[in-house]
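RECORD TYPE: inverse folding
INPUT: structure tokens
STRUCTURE:
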């Protein structure tokens, strides 16, 4: 499919949708992670909505948790049930959701103490590993939700902090 390079000016995000295998487990996880309760929960059974997503049908349960400036839609497809992606960060089509924090070290330690399993150690961008130097000093760490969705915490520095 050829796509025009004419700017469409889509510059504001409304929400991110995350397919989950067990909505109740995911609600508990994201509520604990964000400190926010769902603002909406419900069900949907709609063949036309399924078609809009390239599916034959869409029978699902959902919940929306709002964080500052973004909604997180948790969606459990009951029909058709999809296969788990096991999304690794280096697989084309995988994505991650990043949470901005003010005190990386305190948040990282608090999350570790609470049992969040990070995929590796926290990392600080240093000179010689990233170019240009716009991200120097930025701190990041990655972890997964119960279904393996890649998540990140970040304390941006330099131009990234804007």
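DESIGNED SEQUENCE:
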């Amino acid at each position: 499919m050829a796509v025009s390079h004419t700017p469409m000016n889509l510059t504001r995000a409304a929400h991110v949708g995350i397919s989950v295998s067990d909505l109740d487990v995911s609600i508990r996880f994201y509520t604990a992670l964000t400190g926010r309760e769902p603002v909406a929960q419900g069900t949907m059974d709609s063949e036309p909505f399924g078609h809009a997503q390239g599916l034959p049908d869409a029978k699902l349960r959902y919940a929306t948790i709002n964080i500052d400036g973004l909604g997180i839609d948790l969606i459990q497809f009951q029909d058709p049930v999809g296969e788990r992606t096991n999304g690794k960060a280096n697989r084309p089509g995988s994505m991650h959701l990043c949470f901005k924090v003010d005190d990386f070290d305190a948040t990282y330690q608090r999350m570790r103490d609470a049992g969040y399993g990070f995929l590796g150690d926290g990392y600080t961008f240093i000179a010689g590993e990233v170019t240009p130097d716009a991200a120097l000093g930025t701190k990041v760490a990655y972890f997964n939700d119960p279904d393996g969705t890649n998540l990140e915490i970040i304390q941006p520095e330099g131009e990234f902090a804007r």
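NOTES: The beta strands are 15-19, 40-45, 59-67, 70-79, 96-100, 123-124, 139-144, 150-155.
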